TrEMBL record:
It comes from Candidatus Paraluminiphilus aquimaris. It comes from the Bacteria. Belongs to the RutC family. This is RidA family protein. Pfam families: Ribonuc_L-PSP. Gene3D superfamilies: RutC-like. InterPro entries: RidA, RutC-like_sf, YjgF/YER057c/UK114.
Amino acid sequence: MLAGFSLLKPSIGSENRQKRPCRVVFFLVFSGLASVSHAQTVFFNDGPDADQSLPFSQAVRVNDLLFVSGQVGTDQSGALVDGGIGPESHQVMRNIRDIIHRRGLQMSDVVKCTVFLADVAQWGDFNKVYTSYFSRPYPARSALGANGLALGAALEVECIAAYPPTSK
């Protein structure tokens, strides 16, 4: 049994219900494992706002995807900007933009964002800032309320960007 699926299934029309390997499941499982094991992975922790002492990478590239760690509204010195949701939102989006630019990408390459808000009542204020950094079609997005964000931040945003196909 693998993840709730039996690797054996009854033979159709068999009176004694003999079991035979389910080749499709084997193919799907092993082809998926092969693609993960050959993934090209590069870890990044550079730029003026990268803190080398934190236990995570600022961004990780896996094949043609760039995963950007959650960003809070800190400036280059690592201090949370003053002013609440508006200034923090702008700083978060600038931090994300700077990270993806260092990797050769644009904001239009962002395909997914996850937003953590300390106060969901500030959703509208965040959205005004967020939409000024993207244009249609917007990235897919999830959002949730969160208590106790790092440094007492009003929000945190993480993103996934996709490298455009290269011409051959």
